[in-house]
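FORM 12-B: Structure-to-Sequence Request
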């Protein structure tokens, strides 16, 4: 308990939300401040029962296309809502391009890896050279022998909660909250 009370985030994430929620004559932007404090909680925006109503109200509010609520408290900031429906596994980066079906996203390995020699065909008439399976396939000497090396491509993962807001509390850093 002593360590919890000495944590510099304890007053911000545990005491201040209770104070803001209990004020009966609240200003119009108190809801925005409540939301920012709840979203900045390292344990999750709804870890505390007091945070559930304002955060659930926020999700409904944003789902209708409304803007993020404001908070005039000094040191509180939030970004505009963002949207990132896809993400890649570690070691891959998300790459977008326009293909026959509109904008498409893929995950491309950030390091060269050995792939099937068929992708490094010496046939110069073959135009796709591993299209959709690997990027930049080429023969490369590795430990005295030639290997077909490329940047493997995979499908991206789909986020269950693709919308986000970046919440910043001065002195505590920035936290991305997905909804």
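FORM 12-B RESPONSE
SEQUENCE OUT:
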């Amino acid at each position: 308990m002593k360590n919890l009370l000495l944590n510099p985030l304890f007053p911000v994430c545990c005491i201040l939300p209770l104070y803001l929620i209990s004020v009966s004559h609240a200003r119009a932007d108190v809801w925005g401040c409540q939301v920012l404090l709840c979203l900045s909680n390292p344990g999750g925006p709804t870890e505390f029962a007091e945070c559930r109503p304002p955060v659930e109200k926020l999700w409904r509010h944003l789902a209708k296309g409304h803007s993020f609520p404001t908070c005039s408290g000094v040191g509180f900031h939030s970004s505009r809502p963002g949207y990132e429906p896809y993400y890649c596994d570690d070691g891959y980066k998300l790459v977008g391009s326009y293909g026959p079906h509109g904008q498409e996203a893929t995950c491309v390995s950030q390091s060269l890896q050995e792939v099937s020699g068929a992708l490094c065909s010496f046939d110069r008439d073959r135009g796709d050279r591993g299209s959709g399976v690997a990027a930049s396939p080429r023969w490369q000497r590795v430990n005295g022998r030639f290997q077909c090396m490329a940047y493997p491509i995979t499908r991206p993962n789909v986020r269950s909660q693709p919308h986000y807001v970046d919440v910043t509390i001065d002195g505590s850093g920035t936290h991305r909250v997905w909804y």
